[in-house]
Design goal:
two-stranded antiparallel ribbon; 9 helices; alpha+beta; single chain; Double Stranded RNA Binding Domain
Length: 220
C-alpha cells in the first residue's frame, strides 16, 4: 500500500548512487543498477541478444513479431509502444486545457505548463559548481553535470550506443522500432521525431495555394 501511495505523491525516495536518478520503488532502482553493472540476465529466444531489463527485451520481441498492440481509436494507426500512441493522440485532440495565468498560453499537459511558468519567474536556484551555470530545475542541473563528466549512463540495449540523456535514448529507440508517431495533418507523412515534423510543416507553408480541383487530384 505504501508503494502505491508514492505513485500519487510523486515521491522518489530511492536514488541511484551512480547517476543520482531517483525512483519511487526499490525494485525499480535495483533494475536500474543493472544498466551500470552491465549485467544482462534477460536473453531473446529469437536472436540471442541479452538485456539488463525485461522491458527492453519485450520491446525487442515486438521488432521480431511486428506486433503493434496499441492502436489509435481515431485513425486506426497502430504502435508497438503505448507511450508512442499517447504522443500520437495529441495530433488529433489538439486540446490544451492548462493555461498560463500570466500570458494565457495553453498546454496539453500540466508539466509543460509548470515548465513554462519558469520562463516568467526567471528563477534559477540550481547552479553548477564547475562552471556556475544556473538552472530552474534540479534535473536540468543533473543533466548538465554530464557535460563535464562526459558520462553517458543511458545505453541502447540493441546496439550499445550510449547517451547522456534518457530522452535522447528514447528517440534513438525509434530507429530500431521504425515507429513514426508524429504525422503531418496536411499530407499524412509521418516522422519519428517531432522536430522533423515541424521542419516539414515549413515546406507546406511555403507552397503556393492550389485550386480545389488540384487538391482533389493530390489526395486521390
Amino acid at each position: 500500500m505504501n508503494q502505491h501511495y508514492l505513485m500519487h505523491t510523486k515521491e522518489k525516495p530511492h536514488s541511484c548512487e551512480v547517476c543520482v536518478k531517483a525512483f519511487s520503488q526499490k525494485s525499480n532502482l535495483n533494475s536500474h543498477y543493472l544498466t551500470h553493472t552491465k549485467e544482462k540476465p534477460h536473453s531473446c529466444d529469437v536472436c540471442g541478444k541479452t538485456f539488463s531489463l525485461k522491458k527492453i527485451l519485450n520491446r525487442l520481441y515486438l521488432t521480431h513479431t511486428k506486433e503493434k498492440p496499441h492502436s489509435c481509436e481515431v485513425c486506426g494507426k497502430a504502435f508497438s509502444q503505448k507511450n508512442n500512441l499517447n504522443s500520437h493522440y495529441l495530433t488529433h485532440s489538439k486540446e490544451k486545457p492548462h493555461s498560463c495565468d500570466v500570458c494565457g498560453k495553453t498546454f496539453s499537459q500540466p508539466n509543460n505548463l509548470n515548465l513554462h511558468y519558469l520562463t516568467h519567474t526567471k528563477e534559477k536556484p540550481h547552479s553548477c559548481e564547475v562552471c556556475g551555470k544556473a538552472f530552474s530545475q534540479r534535473n536540468s542541473l543533473n543533466r548538465h553535470h554530464l557535460i563535464h563528466t562526459k558520462e553517458k549512463p543511458h545505453s541502447c540495449e540493441m546496439c550499445g550506443k550510449a547517451f547522456s540523456r534518457k530522452s535522447s535514448l528514447n528517440l534513438h529507440y525509434l530507429i530500431h522500432t521504425k515507429e513514426k508517431p508524429h504525422a503531418c495533418e496536411v499530407c499524412g507523412k509521418a516522422f519519428s521525431r517531432k522536430n522533423n515534423l515541424n521542419v516539414h510543416y515549413r515546406r507546406h507553408r511555403k507552397e503556393k495555394p492550389q485550386s480545389g480541383e488540384a487538391l482533389v487530384k493530390r489526395f486521390q
